[in-house]
């Protein structure tokens, strides 16, 4: 049939209606793409705005560690029992210093 098209469902449309339908579909795709782009832009922008503050680490010499500090693991274990978040050996005399976020 001249001037008519058949869609995938077998419905017959005039060429004019088919082109209108094509344009509407294209417009919807553009709007959907723009909406997706806008949402992604907001998500990415919100991630850039959230900047974690650099936490400072405070040191305090352990009250319970005895002897020279040879391994950070042992120092950290004693410091955790003292209520700190960890510990490490420091200095020439190798003392155990406990760490926590200030």
TrEMBL record:
SUPFAM superfamilies: Scorpion toxin-like. GO terms for biological process: defense response to fungus; killing of cells of another organism. Pfam families: Gamma-thionin. It comes from the Eukaryota. Signal peptide: none annotated. CDD domains: Knot1. InterPro entries: Defensin_plant, Knottins, Scorpion_toxin-like_sf. Keywords: Antimicrobial, Disulfide bond, Fungicide, Signal. Residues 57-102 form the Knottins-like domain. This is Knottins-like domain-containing protein.
